[in-house]
Amino acid sequence: METIKLGVLYAHLIAVCFALVAVLKADYRLWGWRGQVLDSTRRRYLEHTQLMVTRLLVLLWGTGLMMIVLGYAKDGSHYLANPKLWAKLTVVLILTLNGALLHRIVFPLLTVRLSFCELPLQERLIVGTLGALSCSSWLFAAMLGVARDWSYREPYTLQLGLYLLVLLFALSGALILAVMPGSLGRVRARGRAY
Questions:
Q1: Is residue 189 part of a domain?
Q2: How many domains does the chain have?
Q3: Does residue 193 sit within a domain?
Q4: pLDDT truncated to tens, each residue of the chain (194 aa)?
Q5: Is residue 104 part of a domain?
Q6: Closest by alpha carbon to 30, among 46, 15, 44?
Q7: What would the DSSP string read from start to end of the chain?
Q8: Is residue 119 part of a domain?
Q9: Please, what's the b/e burial string for 110-148 (b: 16 or more CB within 10 A of its CB; e: otherwise)?
């Protein structure tokens, strides 16, 4: 049983690594392209990244649920009494729902013939809010994954409180940048497609 659990944990870890790299790389590139209309190469990159992150998220849900089943099989209801487990499930559920909103709302907005800076204020606010929620949720979920010392020790409310604090900072920064496009600095067109 331990060998199976180790294999599932390893697959989960690798999927997290690939997903984090894909999300952070896409966020970095989108930020660099904020003053430019996305050309066909950049739109294809965005579509490829969406598909890859969606597949990785499905894999993460599968391996995560398998780890819960294996943990419950080994430790019974004590395994389910871990507040960190529920905090992580909460964050990943929010991350997943936010991903659906990104696919339905944000990515179509970014593929129109306007740059982020040229979008109407309401649309910039939506893009900024959902983007900040995505990035901070991925990073916080990964942090919970490595916070072994928090298992059974830190209460759910503390963990969610920290998550909300991270979200507050991320959303504040995103909303400031969305409301004041002048604060985005002079964006010059770059000849490379990254």
A1: no
A2: 1
A3: no
A4: 789 999 999 999 999 999 999 999 999 998 888 888 889 999 999 999 999 999 999 999 999 999 999 999 999 999 999 999 999 999 999 999 999 999 999 988 888 878 888 889 999 999 999 999 999 999 999 999 999 999 999 999 999 999 999 999 999 999 998 887 655 554 444 444 44
A5: yes
A6: 46
A7: -HHHHHHHHHHHHHHHHHHHHHHHHHHHHHHHTTTS---HHHHHHHHHHHHHHHHHHHHHHHHHHHHHHHHHHHHTHHHHT-HHHHHHHHHHHHHHHHHHHIIIIIHHHHTSSS-GGGS-HHHHHHHHHHHHHHHHHHHHHHHHHH-GGGTTTS-HHHHHHHHHHHHHHHHHHHHHHHH-GGGG------S---
A8: yes
A9: beeeebbeebeeebbebbbbbbbbbbbbbbbbbbbbebe
Whether this model's pTM surpasses 0.90: no
Residue 42 lies in domain: 2-182
User: Which one-letter amino acid corresponds to residue 167?
Assistant: L
